[in-house]
């Protein structure tokens, strides 16, 4: 998705629902899109599926620009490439579960006519509904209806499944069945994009995209500051600076002035100290979604160790300046406490490493 904008106009005024979003999804990912009501998450999903049209920007799926096609061509493309799961199932009440699952095959004319009933039964069996195949939707539970809707979404064997609040109307047990089914589909090679209001479901996904007021929150920021509100996370996103380092290059040297809290986007960062002979000794390594610089920004302001990119891969960082970092700590006592705990642990780790290098006793 490139610079996606969506603007609605009505008698009450103009509403910017999506504000120039950039988002890339990789094959085989299980992605959760989360955000408060009205944040734009369902509109974002509708851009991917082609159900809604952007005011500006491009949506490209598997190399196809979704919104340059006419409506009939886009409908056929959608039927072959996207399986859509709705919050309220959208099963046709006068058709059996088997017949509902057959509909997408009929629409895009995929599979031989005689093969479609068999495939529908196989998909219903996969979601545990083989004994309910000839029943009408209203005669089975809501959880079973959603499982049938997932079977329907898989009817044409699409590479991408888009699910809008698929567990929103289900109890905990039924929700777990749905997410376990999604896990299985991802392992089989499907890409799943799921809008949800339930933060606990993000523990089961491989990636979480947070949207706030029509903008995407930086994913690394969201992982590093889990206790901040979406408004605060978006503010940090607006104030980020990016840094890139070649493999093995220096990021900070000991006693250097530190002006940023750095968060690791990709690559690995090595923390080292000098031994008595002046040779660098690595004491720990930090990975993506970890941060460094908090000791210095809350203390003397000068680096207590050497920091460098690992020799294996380049390192990508984002950073916020001291003033913004301290402002966040002032406005979020939970975050301040969490940072202070990290500071204490890392200072102890640094102190212990120095003692080992010098041979001194505690």
Question: What do you see in this structure?
Answer:
The protein is α+β, with helices and mostly antiparallel strands and 362 residues long. The chain has 2 domains: 2-216, Rossmann fold, CATH 3.40.50; 235-358, Jelly Rolls (Sandwich), CATH 2.60.120.10. Helix content is 35%, strand content 26%. The chain contains 11 helices and 19 strands. The strands form 5 sheets. A 6-stranded mixed β-sheet has the order 7-8-9-3-10-11, with helices on both faces. A hairpin with a 2-residue loop joins β10 and β11 (215-216). α3 (97-108) crosses α4 and α3 (97-108) runs parallel beside α5. The longest helix is centred in the last third of the chain and has 26 residues, at 333-358. It is elongated.
Kindly summarize this structure in a few lines:
The protein has 362 residues and is of the alpha+beta class. The chain contains 11 helices and 19 strands.
Major beta sheet summary: 6 strands, mixed
* Strand line-up in the sheet with most strands: 7-8-9-3-10-11
Strand tally: 19
CATH fold topology of the largest domain: Rossmann fold
What are its keywords?
six-stranded mixed beta sheet; alpha+beta; 362 residues; four-stranded antiparallel beta sheet; 35% helix; 26% strand; Jelly Rolls; 11 helices; elongated; single chain; 2 domains; Rossmann fold; 19 strands
